[in-house]
Amino acid sequence: MLRWCVVWACLAGVARAFCPPGCNCDDNVPSARCVGVGLNVLPILFNPGLRRLNMAHNLISSLNDGLVFFDRLEELDLSNNALAYLGTENFVEQVRLQELRLAHNNLTTLTPGAFRGLNSLTLLDLSHNGLIDLQPGMLEDAPRLTVLLLAHNKLHVLVRHTFRGLRSLHVLDLCDNYFRDVPSSALGDLQSLKSLHMCRNRLTRLEPDAFTTPALTSLSLETNNIDHIEAGALQRLKNLQKLNLNDNLLREVPAAVLSLLLMLDTLILSKNNFTTIQAEAFRSLSRLTTLEISRCPRLASLHPNAFAHCISLQRLTISHNPLIRHLPERLFTSLPRLHTLDLRANSLKSVSEASMPWGSLARLDLRDNQLVCNCSIRWLAALLGAANTSLAAPDVQCAAPEKLKGLYLSRLSPSEQLCVDQVQVVVGIVVVTVSTVLLMALSVLLCKYRRRNQRDKMGRMWPPGPLAPWPPDDHTAPTRHIMADEYVYHTYSSVRKIPVTKV
Ligand SMILES: *[C@@H]1O[C@H](CO)[C@@H](O)[C@H](O)[C@H]1NC(C)=O
Ligand SMILES: *[C@@H]1O[C@H](CO)[C@@H](O)[C@H](O)[C@H]1NC(C)=O
Ligand SMILES: *[C@@H]1O[C@H](CO)[C@@H](O)[C@H](O)[C@H]1NC(C)=O
Ligand SMILES: *[C@@H]1O[C@H](CO)[C@@H](O)[C@H](O)[C@H]1NC(C)=O
């Protein structure tokens, strides 16, 4: 016993310098870092004043009271180990611990009391485990928690009061779990929650009052199967600023739902099943600055008033929508602040100069469309070719006509290569018209000439020679006169039919 005490005293004496093999220790902080060195238990012989301990990428499968000596710890990283359970009261001494990282372990359930003592904890990372549920009040022992990361687990429901006591929680990450419904009743305790991530779950619809977290400013619902959002689903989110609905199955912009989100500034609606963007789809969103509608395989048209009232819109991305061939002329002109317009990789054939919001536009991307390089986009060629312009716009390639295909628009000469067809057409029309007129005039002249010739011939034969004696005076004389009159009015061909020989 005495011997043990001596050993302990000696160890305590050298503790400042003690650092297990493979670890890096810094006695100034003090901190220790033993990453990926194959440890399967927590070494207990570090400096007891340790404030930061990083044991990531080892083989630790159990805590086994290993932390009792380190009551000064502020940051503890145990991620990428083999922990299958945390036990209870393994953190009771860690009253100063602020960050606890347990990601990439093998945790499937947590027992009540697992986090007892963690009064100062602000960040808890439990992502990439196999958690199938969380018991109510489980996290009450960490009342200061502001960030809770539960992504990549197997959660599918959270009962009421799962988050009881978490009055300061600001960020909750539930991405990559198995939720079919929003755990609305559990979220009700999170009155300070600002950021909720539910990406890559199995949500199919959002029920009325799905979100009961009034402080929420950012909501990510990316990559679910949402095809319907009930009218009141987001109505409590009066402070919502960012909404991500990327990669869902919406068939139309949920305009009525969105119209209640008066503080919204960023909206991502890409990868949905829209066929059209209807008129005033974003009405009431007068604070919206960023809007993205990209990669919608069925989207073919946008109503000219689709963006009506989006007076703050600065960045608009409508890209990679293969069925968009044309954009309405007035679509962007009602957006007085628009400075970045990304229209890349649609199937636009032409873009009119008048459709651009020239007062504010600073960036324009029209790459990878199906632009027909003709006189109609001469303005764009001039713009892209200009050495000195405040507009940032990458060069675009022509998709047609065949002879300009693949060529960069800025390098074409507007008057020779873009408008050349038009000039040719005009010249062609003039040539054809002039030659037609000339031809007609010529034929008229010819006609007259031949007619005169004919008349002269008739004149020479008049009166007829002795071989054609005058018929008896009584009835044929008037006939001859009439025939002479007909001469004047008949065409050349009919003239030929006159039976001169009979005469
Ligand atoms: C996780 O636990 C399961 C059984 O619960 C076990 O089969 C698996 O090997 C464990 N994985 C690791 C990395 O320890
Ligand atoms: C998209 O909507 C159409 C009907 O508008 C439907 O037939 C199709 O299945 C939808 N696509 C997906 C992936 O659900
Ligand atoms: C240029 O091509 C576009 C797209 O095919 C067409 O709508 C437009 O009328 C053409 N302009 C001229 C001047 O030919
Ligand atoms: C380039 O632009 C600046 C202002 O943007 C202007 O002062 C300058 O004269 C321009 N130079 C040419 C060559 O156009």
Automatic annotation (TrEMBL):
Family annotation (SMART domains): LRR_TYP, LRRCT
Claim: Iron is one of the keywords in the record: no
InterPro entries cross-referenced by the UniProt entry: Cys-rich_flank_reg_C, Dev_Immune_Receptor, Leu-rich_rpt, Leu-rich_rpt_typical-subtyp, LRR_dom_sf
UniProt-listed Pfam families: LRR_8
Methyltransferase recorded as keyword: no
Highest taxon of source: Eukaryota
Record-annotated membrane-spanning stretches: 425-447
Classification via SUPFAM superfamilies: L domain-like
LRRCT domain segment(s): 369-420
Signal peptide feature range: 1-17
GO cellular component term of the entry, any: extracellular space
Alphabetical keyword list: Glycoprotein, Leucine-rich repeat, Membrane, Repeat, Signal, Transmembrane, Transmembrane helix
Protein name as catalogued: LRRCT domain-containing protein
